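dude i think i finally got it to work??
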Amino acid sequence: MAAKSDGAPVSQRNEIPPECPSRSDPRPPQRRPVEQRYSLPDCCWTLCALLVFFSDGASDLWLAADYYLRRDYWCFALTLVFVIVPSVVVQVLSFRWFAYDFSETVESGTAAAAVVAASGAEESDFSTKDSGERGAGRSAAAGVLPGPGTGGGARGCCRAFMWLFQGIIHIFQLAQVWRYVHALYLGVQSRWHGDPERRHYYWRMMFESADISMLRLLESFLKSAPQLVLQLSIMIQASQVLPLQGLSASASLISLAWMISSYQKVLRDSRDDKLPMTYKAVIVQILWHLFTIGARTLAFALFASVFQLYFGIFIVAHWCIMTFWIIQGETDFCMSKWEEIIYNMMVGIVYVFCWFSVREGRTRCRMLIYSLTVLVENVALTTAWYLYRGSRTSDFYAVIMVCLVASSYALGTFFMFVYYCLLHPDGSVSGWGYIVEKEVPVESLASPASSLPPDLVSSPPRTLQRTKGSDREQGPGVDGDVFQVRPPRGAHAPVPPLTPRTEGPVIRIDLPRKKYPAWDAHFIDRRLRKTILVLESAAPVTPRIQYRCLGTPKEVMEYETTV
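look at this
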């Protein structure tokens, strides 16, 4: 899932034009008029996320213990399995990330050598190409800066203690808690320090937030979603609701809705070409997913209480269809074909419960097809339960359950329209053309940030103008934008583009921009993270990140012959 990153300087013979050729549309990309900073609402949001995490896990364990004391060993085993197995999977993945970030690797030494080479130059370029002899030629310079394990006995003891501490944290299944606390610490440090330390801490905080979002999203759909269906099925079969069952189901539902919305918010906050999502919009999106997932899981539980075997067949069939649908959409998240298929299979699990955008561009048609499919499935599952329910279920109880499914899905759809029509970060979305009308400050239209070329970025940790799928097919000179931003009435025409900043190190990533909802390469590739953090901490100015531009055929050929 990662590109090669050795931090070797780019030779002059492979010099690439500093910017992509301009497209026919002179509109500047959407950019924030001011740089984002860590704020008190961000801190409160992280604390609330910790509360959601603890409430979800503690309620499940409490319920499992209650099943054991009631001698209901079958329910106890199922509840405990859906707690332990997903948690172990997430801990293994988290520890693997920590081991790579903290281990002594060749990439760290080469990145340090690149910093030494850049420290005496006014402008330096670094490439993520696997440069072989270039990296070997620079490896001798790595001794100038102390490596991870060359700080003497005290440094070795600190490293050993950190390995032991992280091992204990992950054994006790507390990796998410540690990462949340670490993100809080980095955010607070970014507020207390000035530039350039503030940029460094804020960049690291965004990297940590990206890791937490990925881990928690995976855990939610591996643990909370099955747990919610299981507890609802038990309650329906028993025709009674225990307090702990209701508490566990509610915590699982809130965790699912929270993590989907939190993932979208962190993703937008990490991108310079995306406007940030306000907390008002996040709350509405939580309500949207809360009611739609609630209706979905309730329909699942009703059907599973009568048709256990057919329910399993239905889930597998729905997952297979959604996975093939996603694969057909040609997502662009991972670095290899098989990793991409595994990623699509994981997203297929998400699609069993709710909509999750996996493509850039016009997704309204796909979202409409998915919503209609889910609506038909919910009606079919609920109708089958209503017709074949047992004699113990009264008509009044059955009508109440049917009304709950219908009203919950209707409320979720209502909040979805509220989000897209009133609170979407890009403005009100109306019609099938995705025309966005947003008030943009006049000064931001002529700001230096808005005049940067689409493949450059100069403010951490924001990234670059996305490479649309249409850019790959249409080539340069053809507009492939989906969103159109209209300037306010009376706004003056923007001034001629300013020359982008050229001083300081440039990190060239020999990959095109990834598609939404994929993170950019330097959020996915941990080797790129190391290079960026080392360069950012040593350079007097923020390193610029330059992605591979598909608009220049010469550049594409040069990259493809060296990768």
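The CA atoms of residues 418 and 430 lie 12 Å apart.
im so relieved honestly
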